[in-house]
Amino acid sequence: MLIKINGEEMDVAEASTIQDVIEETNAPYTPGSIVCLIKGKKELEKNISKYKIRTNKGSIVIQLDESDETKPLVDIWKNQYDEFVDLNIRWSTTTEVAIGPIVTDLEPTSEEYKYYEGDVVLSLSSFSNESTHLILLKDNTTNVYSVPPFNKGIFARVIGGKKTLDNLTDDDSVSSIEPIIERSTTKDIVSVSDLTTVLEEGNELYTYMSFDIDEESPVCVEHLFALIKDGKMKVSYESESFLGFYELASLEKPKEHVTKRNRGTITVRSDGVGVGKLFIYRENRVLSPNHTTVGNVVKGMELIDAAKENEFITVKAEQGRLMLLNKTQAEATEMLSAAGVEHMIDGLVDDNAIIVEQTPQHTIDILKEGKVITKAINKDDLCTIKFTDNAPRSVRYFKLLSGLLENPVGQIKIHFAVPGMHIVIFEGDKKAAKGLVPENNPVDKVIRGQIGITNMASKSAGLIGIRFEDNSDFGPTAETFDATNIIGDITSDYDYLENLKEGVVVYVAESNNES
């Protein structure tokens, strides 16, 4: 049976499931994400009212008249519009452009009617249904177009591309006709998470959304990349006009390239309430100086229409992120070579060393410069942390302060270290620490290697600490238990940290150790 997957038609076995088709085609898909299922082209197009007629001179947009009187004409159009593709402009006058002919089952009339600029008419030239033409009116006129006995043959209006229409001659042709999918036309698009769903003839399946990036917004584009975890993004909010992705909300970003927010535009809010939130638009919205454009959906807009709050979408960037942190020097060299970028190493040259800094930081800047400088450390010197699920505010604070919210390697600086005290304390941020309510306080004792943060119960809120021995009285920042929030455990060798001095930067990463 014939189906479509990500826009490509293919023949699959009867009773194939979504999982079968994904595996057979190797379609991009991240487990846990939704897929979009459309029953078929006609099922989708029954709600569509706008069409784009592409020519070698440009495009013309028409909007259907959905009144009862025009229904027979609209039905003919929806069933046969693709027959006008690849046809020449049959004639062009000062009042009209004609495209055709095609064969229909319409019957002609001989009445003369008044027509107005922008009318779109089905005409049966020479009173023959074998010579059905599409007439687009450039000016008001009175004529006998041998139209069917429905609404003077008028079934649509030209709503865009008047300049193109005026410039068409009989040397031009139609290259394609495309239904324009808007949010209001997607009633029969559904999101599916059950991959055992059996597909039927004519079904359309979409497994991923791809996007291109706006090269004039290097900082905010990196913010978009940071929201993609394991090849997917989680929907935080759904409305008729957009999807919201709020995982990195409150992270301040500079104002960069501002454009119109059209359907498929991706923006980051850079000013006002909700800074750091990312939006993908289902409908056109007015231009806003508070939104930086970071990209546009290239494929898979159907998934954006179908997705609901808390669902995951598989995403794929046309230009991938050049994030080198937490990779070995050898891995980075291979990645950069594939992108045509020169890899320059500052300091430790070992192929197995772990990269902790890169300059430039942003993908777009790296591509523009054609080179990147990396700094690496020995793998044993990277401090890895297994974060707890019981202190979400405190964990977010730590990731914000260290940079782990957006990058795979972060940095924290030693604030206080005294040999023999078996404790090291790192700098905090008093402003960011204002929301650190008590959570996940120690009960009987603090275990060696636990990492904690001082909460709002103390004037020193925001300080971060590690203890190198168990303690039944004080937490990792030397505060009482009620002023201490435990955020996790160090999973790497950390004894060397006790011997470091104030002002030294320690590189941190989230542990992959599930134990």
- Global geometry: elongated
Q: What is the CATH superfamily classification of the largest domain?
A: Cyclophilin-like
Any idea what the CATH architecture of the largest domain is? Beta Barrel
Average predicted local confidence, pLDDT: 94
Using the CA coordinates, give the radius of gyration. Answer: 31 Å
| Strand content bin | 25-35%
Estimated helix fraction? 10-25%
Write a short abstract of this structure:
This protein is an alpha+beta fold and 515 residues long.
Question: What does this 3D model show about the protein?
Answer:
The chain has 515 residues and is α+β, with helices and mostly antiparallel strands. The protein has five domains: 2-46 and 188-205, Ubiquitin-like (UB roll) (Roll); 50-179, Cyclophilin, CATH 2.40.100; 208-317, Cyclophilin; 329-380, no CATH class; 382-510, Cyclophilin-like (Cyclophilin, Beta Barrel). 14% of the residues lie in helices and 33% in strands. The chain has nine helices and 33 strands. The strands form six sheets. Strands 6-7-10-9-12-5-4-13 form an eight-stranded antiparallel β-sheet. The longest helix has 11 residues, at 392-402. The chain is elongated, with a radius of gyration of 31 Å. 37% of the residues are buried. The model has no long low-confidence stretch (mean pLDDT 94).
